[in-house]
Every structure is written in structure tokens, then in C-alpha cells.
Write a structure and sequence with these properties.
By secondary structure, the protein is mainly α. It is built from four helices and no strands.
């Protein structure tokens, strides 16, 4: 007869084999992936580095947008054809930046929750 230690070893081996088989099934993978997804989202919500990267990117895009907007406002009614061309180019860059920024904020605003910093705008408007 098998003594208690032998039965325990066989039980543990069978348990590991069953868990390994469950891990390979679609249900097992789905459960593990769900846990990994939840852990990843928690890391993103609480990570200072991710929040800082998102805020820095937003500030850089806002700065670029404002620069192009000011260039557009300065040269749009100029008498010089070349300066009006500069204004048109600045307007295109500003609108492209606004589109990229709006998409980026939409994709990453979960990082702030309801605590959006004061200097970060939720949306940049397009120049008409």
C-alpha cells in the first residue's frame, strides 16, 4: 500500500497536470488573459510615468498648435503672396495637430480620470 507521502506526491502531480491542461484550453487562456488585462489597466491608472508621458505629449502638441495658430493669424491677411502661403501652411499644420491631439486625448483621457490638469485642453478647435 502507498503511504501518505506517496499519495500526496501523486495528488500534487495530478493537480499540476490538470492545471497545465486547463491553462492550454481556450477557457483557461481567456481567464488568464482577463487577469492580465485587468492588471495592465490598473498599472496604467496608477503609473506616474504613463501619466507624465501623456501630459508631456499633450503639452507639446498644444504648444505646436498655438505656434501655428499665431503664425496663421499673423500672416493670413498679408498683402504678400508668400506670407499668405505661410499662413495657409500654418493653418494646415494647426488643423493636423488639432486632429491628432483630439484623437490622442480621446484615446488616453482615462489616465486622468476626472482630474484633467488645468493646462490640458480636452479638445483643440479647427481653424476655419
Amino acid at each position: 500500500m502507498l503511504d501518505f507521502l506517496d499519495k500526496l506526491i501523486i495528488f500534487v502531480l495530478i493537480l499540476f497536470i490538470l492545471l497545465g491542461c486547463f491553462y492550454m484550453t481556450p477557457w483557461g487562456r481567456a481567464m488568464i488573459n482577463g487577469v492580465d488585462y485587468v492588471n495592465h489597466r490598473i498599472d496604467e491608472y496608477t503609473s506616474y510615468d504613463i501619466k507624465k508621458d501623456v501630459e508631456d505629449t499633450c503639452r507639446a502638441m498644444i504648444s505646436s498648435y498655438i505656434s501655428d495658430e499665431l503664425t496663421w493669424r499673423q500672416y493670413r491677411e498679408s498683402e504678400s503672396e508668400e506670407q499668405r502661403s505661410w499662413a495657409d501652411q500654418a493653418k494646415m499644420r494647426a488643423n493636423k495637430t488639432a486632429a491628432s491631439y483630439n484623437h490622442y486625448v480621446l484615446k488616453n483621457k482615462y489616465v486622468w480620470g476626472k482630474n484633467v490638469p488645468d493646462d490640458i485642453k480636452i479638445e483643440l478647435s479647427y481653424l476655419e
